[in-house]
Structure formats: structure tokens, C-alpha cells
User: What shape does this take?
Amino acid sequence: MSTSDIVGIILLSVHVIMGFVAAVAISLHRKPATAIAWILTIIFIPLLGAIAFFLIGFGRLPRRRREKQKEVNALMLARSGVTAHRASPSTPDWLDTAVILNEILGALPIVAGNRTTLIEDYQGSFDAMIGDIDAAREYVHVEFYILVRDTTTQPFFDALARAVARGVIVRVLSDHVSGLMFPHRKATQEALAQMGAQWRPMLPLRPHLGQWQRPDLRNHRKLVVIDGHVGYTGSQNLIDSTYLKPKNVRRGLHWIELMVRLEGPVVGELDAVFITDWFSETDELLPVHTYPVQAAAIAASDSGNEKPLSDTPLDNIDAQVIPSGPSFENDNNLKLFVMLIQNARSRVSITSPYFVPDESTMLAILTAAARGLDVELFVSEVADQVLVHHAQRSYYAALLDAGVAVYLYRSPTVLHSKHFSIDDEVAVIGSSNMDIRSFSLNMEVSVLVRGRKFVDQLKLVEDNYRRNSIRLDPEAWARRPLREKVIDGLARLTSALQ
Assistant: This one.
């Protein structure tokens, strides 16, 4: 036997052993599809596959961060004061178990007596935030996945500076990696420092300081809290609607978002999410305060029967904040989303710019359509992320075959809103896409809302999407070029590598 033969046998043996070890190690605590995708990657491209697994194959944050989450969860109810405003939703009858599930997973109950305002206008949401910041007396908490000072957001930064000058404490969090991907990073940080705001990067990748985790685990939350009285959350980042990328400007792309302005006890829950993230980054645990909406305002607003507009404030709304992400041991938003879809009785309307569902979500949607429900999905005709765009296209055929109405929001607008409604009085709005990344890898925040008037408002938003969208024709989609089908299928395979 020659030396080359011996070397070949040794390499083959190492390859087999590596595949066996990978099969055992990777299959533990992972979904079968994810485990199979990683094992095949390591078998067929051993070196690169192994490197990729050790870089992005671990889906939870370091133990110390998870322990901080548990510590805050244990203190949340006792410190937040939200229990005094706990709601007991009576309809639909299955919703009680959903809110119990959310409370067990996220440590926050559903609370009554809230005021909500949906904001569709991109600039309008900034204007509303600026108005509330100018009224701040104690503190302003700002947390965005993408936070950039540009010509559009400059007035927001000016409002923060005015607040600091009045003696208001301004705390700001933004995702570390996203800050490296967009322009004006140093100018943004310098502006915050000069005004006297306290800024910290979220999930920083600084190995020399012992700050390291899987690099694509990101904090994707978007929220603003003013004095514990007013809060904002939804899909919108703090950046110009073109996202400042030259290729977006050349293509004429701009983003459409949906935010919700909140008042009442639920603001304390939203603030608790910020406080948890602040504690994770600074080791400083802030107090949580909860302020209910005044009963007189609720009674006055409830008396009318006028048709609600999407930007009309609504009172006496039950709401529950659901934080999720790799700091938790469970996929909180995934469990909630699947449960809601499974319990729908008449309709399911989903809006998600990045739709790459896991098996349980896809099965719940297909089953809802097979049960005769009116099921629709709103996504964008054009995309800013090519791989994700092709991966989500691979699901359209199965959805169309099941009777799901798939709407493509017309370019050059990128539909970036993230929400869905169930039947007539249950809805979810927040930062979470309906995709594998948002379910397992990103830190997200969602708000579960119970209220017929709120869902009526959300239906108006959905009606607007429908008017500005192209509905996919099943037969025409099936006839699309083979090349596109191949690219879509290959992109779908990569989505399982988590």
C-alpha cells in the first residue's frame, strides 16, 4: 500500500468520524431540519462547514446573558406594578390560554386600560415621537436595531438634545453590528455623546473585552419610552426611509412601516424590555414604573360608534408585551404565532417583509387555509435582501395551492411592516418577522392586542396594502422560469442553517 493510499484512508476515516461526531453533537437540542442541514454541510464541505458551524451554529446567547434575563424575569412582576391592571379577556374563549403562555414565557401579563394609536406615516411617527420627547420630564429610553443620525432623523436627535438640556435622562441602545453596516456611525455616536445622552451598543462583538457570541445573533427591537407614560414600538428603525444605501437610492426604493403609540400600563411592560436590555449591557438594573390611562379619558372615547381611522387613538384596549430571542430558553414569538393561527376561526391576515417560516408555522397557515379560513399574506414585490427574497418565494406555490391569497406590495416600496390579525379582535404588532431568524436568532418585541376597534383599524391598513399590491395568480406563478425555481429552492436550503 502506497503512502498516498494510507493518507487517503486516514483522511477518509477523519471525514467519517467528523460526520459521526457532527451528527451526534448537532442533533442535540435542534430541530431535525436544522440538524440535517448542518450535518450535510459539514459532510460535503468539511473544513468550511465546520468553521461555519462554530461561528454561527450556536443559537443561544452566553450563559451570563441568559442568567440576567432570568433574573429580570423573576423580578419583573414584583417590580413593575402591572399586576394591578391585569386583564381577564373573556373573548375569544381560547385567548386566556394564549396570554398565560406569554406570561410564562416572557414574565409579563396582559393588562387593561391602554390607549393605542396606529401610525402608518413614516415621517409622522418621528413627528409624534418628537412631540412626546419634548414633553418628557424624567427620562427617555430609545432602542433601535438601526439608529442613524441623518437629515431625516436629525430633528429626533435635536429633541433628545433639548430633553437632556432640561435635565431629562436620555438612555439609548442600538445594535452593534448594524451600526457597522450603515453610514454616519461615528457622527451618530458623537452627537449622542455631545448632548450628554447615555449610549450603549447592544450585543457588541469585542473579543478583547470578553464580549463575544454568535455574530449573527442580533437585537432587532425598536422601541421608545417617555417617562413610563408613552411608548412606541413596531417595525420602523431610526433612519431615512431609503435606509441610505446607494443601491436603494439608485433603484428609488423606500420603506413603508407601521408603528403603534401606546399609553397605559402596557408602557411599563415595554419599558421593562428596555430595562432588561440596559441591564444586559451595563449591569445597571433600573426601576420600572407603570402609569394607567385616566379612567375619564377611557369613558369619553368609548362612547362613540364612529368608524375608526388608522390614526385615531383608541381607549380601553387590552395589551401584552412579548419579548423573545436567544436570551430566552424558548422561541416565545414562534409559540405565540403558531397558537394564534391554529385558533383562528374565520380569517388570518399576515404582513411580513421576510417570510421564511419554520415547519410548524407553515403547517399552521396551510391548515388554516384548508379549514376554509380566509388567509392572506402581504410581502414585497421588490426586496433588499436577495437570498431571503428568493427563499421566501419558494413557499408561495404551496401557499397558493392551499388557497392562501399572496399579495406583493408594488415596487419601489419595500413593505417592512410586521403584524398580523386573527378574526375580529386579536392582533400582534412589533419588530418580529415571520421567519426563522426572528423566531430563534433575533431579540424581538411584539405586542398582543385584544380589541375589536383595534383590529378594525388594522383591517384598514390591510385594505390599503391590498389596493397597492399585485395578487399572485397560482397558474402564472407555476409557469415562472425554471431558473427562478432553482434559485428559489437553493436559497430555501440555506434558511435551515441556524
Q: What stands out?
A: The mean pLDDT is 86. The CA atoms of residues 340 and 422 lie 7 Å apart. The two ends are 43 Å apart (CA to CA). Residues 63-100+112-316 form a domain with the Endonuclease; Chain A fold (CATH 3.30.870.10).
